[in-house]
């Protein structure tokens, strides 16, 4: 399987590698990435800026749409064929953003990202994509916790992410 890795040394240094295909655990889904979208935070990781610099090579990019290919034995929320979106902050499900919920951002300097052919997601760290959108457009519909008006609001220091637009997987 192909994945792209960064050591935080710039866009031109992104490298494609063959890596072992992941397998889902009991509460996880295995999904094939159909589209990704880039945002400013992704560039901070790839450029290795400040606290976003990865301590080791990582797969970057937080926004994607992927089709479920396999489910773990305890998964109840998704079926094979569902289109899913990873959540940006997997531990933030509702309420105010706190230090306890602002951990392990998807595609961040220490958590797995979406710039790969196959990804594994815990079923609690993904949402169904809107059925009215294709994968390219769905990957830009931010997977915010329930009740939050936008994923940008309440982000650290009030910063908002701006998209460079959807990118189809080829």
UniProtKB/TrEMBL annotation:
Biased composition (Low complexity): 143-154, 161-170
Chain residue ranges for the region called Disordered: 1-25, 139-170
InterPro entries in alphabetical order: ADH-like_N, GroES-like_sf, Zinc_ADH-like
Positions in coiled-coil regions: none
Domain Alcohol dehydrogenase-like N-terminal stretches: 25-130
UniProt name for this protein: NADPH:quinone reductase-like Zn-dependent oxidoreductase
Organism: Kineococcus radiotolerans
Lineage: Bacteria, Bacillati, Actinomycetota, Actinomycetes, Kineosporiales
